[in-house]
Specification:
Two copies of one chain form a homodimer. The first copy, chain A, is α+β, with helices and mostly antiparallel strands. Chain A is built from ten helices and twelve strands. The interface between A and B is large, with 69 and 69 residues.
Chain lengths: 315, 315
């Protein structure tokens, strides 16, 4: 079997697109850019058993908005193509739509339409459309930039695992992790404002995991990076979850698709960026610095290469 | 099981969208409209066995462009989310991409990116994005308008059936039908120009079949229509195919998803519209007239209600 990256490589070559299959695609239009992105989510792979219908709808919309956030684009509408098995009850359909609607509202946008199909399992394919004068790309980071995260890590991977474990009695923190998995918020508003104010050099979402995001951003920018383990913000209860499950937090966040953005911010802009985040009632977490070459991790005083094991299909 | 129309009704109510799940959705932007549409196609349901990988790629793009054509929008880009089974050979992936690329080029647009997923069967979900100052809608037809089709009917349903029949020795016309099924062309260029020149009152694609298209357009416009059977343009060999298979041509075109558009054109504009079609090396076929109330069919001198049996999922 071909790997996901090889498959994308074959497609990009044939379509002659250089930046395709990144976070979002840009179409120059009337002095701005229309930014569009599509994300397919499937039962089992993205929707674990036990995830509510509302959670399915919410995640479909959030996954797509997350790609717009990485581009610093302001969302103007979402479409969803539904693939439903014929056994689904009418109220399940209503709840999925309700989840979509709430998620779009939470991100100040709307689901404006879509398409209906019959499939064996639930397959939801969203498209988010946004606008930005200068969309952010993975390229553009400069040595000395501060690497910042728009939110905490690990709730996605830990939540996914908790759903699959089908555990009945959950601790309070486990409940919080599952809740965050069901209703993640992408930083569309914050990233679109940071971009509008010119405070960001480069950005990417972390849908293939944290380390992959760092490597993608560095490779597109032709830079390296130093990540400081002590600065990594873990979602409440994630470290406790890791202790129990025998995984290291670093392994966990490489498996996760937390809908957060990794941004390279020039040091002279970082205070302004932090103030902007505060106004959005959120936080920017400083996790490292852009270097000239190598991609490194500092943990417990030791520096080593940051290994890149993200989540990929066909493995 | 809920019907497709009921499912869409539940979703539209929950999302509070009135026109959603029509041909394409519009987002007002800078004095124009961004027109976006999404269409999911699946192995078995939309891609019959024996359809080439190139045909899969081509149809994915054409189905989405067809919705833009109905809105009279000029395409500016296409995204595709790929769901692939892990057994697919690398060259199959390449051929699907090549089919997409050729189809986009034939419609003067590009596939700019997408998303990659693992699925049990092939699931391709496209999104086409276009622009129009005044997007066409299903509503707006007026009594007296001429109903016209942008191309011939039946190749889609007959081609689909021929693929499924797995017949080895095909006649020349059967070969032509299969070829048309594999590489349909949507009238994006023609419809976008007709719309730009203000020659069309209302339009819809005929993805749910011809009769459903007539009923949809009439119901949205609050009108009726008289369809003249003798004016219906059948693709070469379709009537012969119908004789052999025991289906009536009218049944057949109600099952088909020919990527053509049904347009309501004021009589005083029809000559100009026909000239425009000629310049695009294509043809507008006059198939009926918009009436005040009933939706009727005239065949062999007899007038009867036009029955509406389109293709729907979950049946």
């Amino acid at each position: 079997m071909v790997s996901e990256l090889d498959a994308i490589c074959i497609i990009k070559k044939e379509l002659r697109v250089e930046s395709g299959f990144e976070d979002a695609e840009c179409i120059p239009y009337k002095g701005k850019n229309i930014v569009a992105t599509t994300d397919m989510l499937t039962e089992g792979e993205d929707f674990p058993p036990g995830l509510s219908y509302e959670g399915i709808g919410w995640n479909t919309v959030a996954a797509n908005l997350s790609d717009l956030a990485a581009a610093g684009a302001k969302p103007i509408g979402v479409l969803v193509a539904w693939g439903l098995p014929r056994e689904i009850p009418p109220d399940g359909i209503r709840q999925i739509a309700a989840g979509m609607s709430s998620c779009a509202r939470a991100h100040k946008t709307r689901v404006i339409g879509g398409d209906m199909n019959e499939t064996d399992k639930i397959v939801m394919c969203g498209t988010a459309i946004g606008v930005a004068r200068y969309p952010l790309r993975r390229s553009g980071a400069k040595p000395g930039d501060i690497l910042a995260l728009t939110g905490k890590l690990g709730a996605s991977a830990a939540g996914y695992h908790l759903f699959w474990s089908k555990k009945q009695k959950l601790t309070l923190t486990e409940e919080a992790i599952k809740k965050r998995f069901e209703r993640p918020i992408a930083p569309t508003q914050l990233m679109s404002e940071l971009n509008l104010r010119g405070l960001v050099h480069a950005a990417t979402d972390i849908s293939d995991g944290f380390a992959a995001a760092v490597h993608n951003l560095c490779s597109a920018s032709g830079t390296g990076a130093l990540i400081e383990y002590i600065g990594l913000p873990f979602f409440e209860g994630v470290e406790e979850f890791c202790k129990k499950s025998g995984k290291s937090p670093l392994e966990l966040i490489n498996l996760s698709a937390d809908y957060e953005v990794l941004a390279a911010i020039p040091p002279e802009c970082f205070l302004a960026a932090k103030r902007t985040a505060e106004r959005h009632k959120t936080h920017l977490y400083e996790v490292g610095t852009v270097l000239k070459k190598e991609v490194l991790l500092e943990k417990d005083g030791k520096i080593s290469p940051l290994s890149c094991n993200g989540f990929f299909h066909f493995r």
